[in-house]
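=== RUN LOG ===
request id: a7f3
mode: sequence -> structure
chains: 1
length: 370
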Amino acid sequence: MEALDFLEKEQTFTLPERYSVLTEEEMKQRIREIKATFGDQLFMPGHHYQKDEVIEFADARGDSLKLAQICTEMEAARFIVFCGVHFMAETADMLTEDHQKVILPDMRAGCSMADMADLDQTEKGWAEMQGRFGDTILPLTYVNSTAAIKSFVGKHGGATVTSSNAKKMLEWAFTQKDRILFLPDQHLGRNTAFDLGISLDEMAVWDPIGRRFEYEGEDLQNVKVILWKGHCSVHEKFNIKHIENLRKKDPEMQILVHPECTYDVVQASDLDGSTSFIINTIEKAPAGSKWAIGTEMNLVNRLIKENPDKEIVSLNPFLCPCLTMNRIDLPHLLWSLEMLESGEVVNHIKVEEEVRKYAVLALNRMLERS
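=== RESULT ===
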């Protein structure tokens, strides 16, 4: 069954009533029992942004690509229950063997950023860019994108990037072509390109809805980086006012943000980096240090719990956790495992072979340089 068919089915699907009356401890005990029954035939990766109640059962924590790579090492695992979002499960499916089945506990666990670039929009936009700039553009896509977009990029000579290696991959891309199309997160693309010495007037935003460039410079031909008009709905909610207010309230507080935040927020912060960079920075920070972190709330709360010797707050104290990441909860996790126990594989994520071929090519181009 295709992903869209799953999504349509999920709109009318509700969990059996028994999952609403089980206590939290009853659900946790059942999950422990099922995991013990399957042993190493079952592997459960959990993304850093997952709820504590879910991450408790993760066999490995990490960002999306790290988890997919770890999945490839779990050769004994017949089933991979991916506690993350849809594009992450797709990547895990593409990088693992055919006998391994990747399962997403709740098909509503998507990613608004990934959904901001679909294949039809991308193909139309690419045609217009080629008409204007000729064969001078190499596409790069953030791993936070659909398999179809990864495949498009791979087919056109490009590669995937992560927030950790984006700078290195942009440097490589400029050895291939004069210009880069960066999908789907404009902020990571802008912040990374600026760090490489590319000025803001050498960047333009491509609006896939209006099918036009947003550019304030004098000559569009000067553009080196074309930024897809997409963003993370969580990281875009940190703004410069949060930083200004915090600086006034507590000048000793260091501000650490993810590069999916807007350009002005990244420039005004003390440090910026990937999820792994944020975690490592906090873990290595001296006791008594003060930190305001601009990233997803589940992770910030976990860092607060795991680092009691430091003062840690969210840069935006009113921020809600990522809604799609939070789709996966104990009831959905237990349901998917009990169905597996009964012999039925639900929410099986399977990428078509033609899409997979070019998407893996894009992934491998990155992995070879990482």
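=== NOTES ===
The chain is about 45% helix and 15% strand.
The chain has three domains: 3-110+324-351, 114-232, 235-314.
=== END ===
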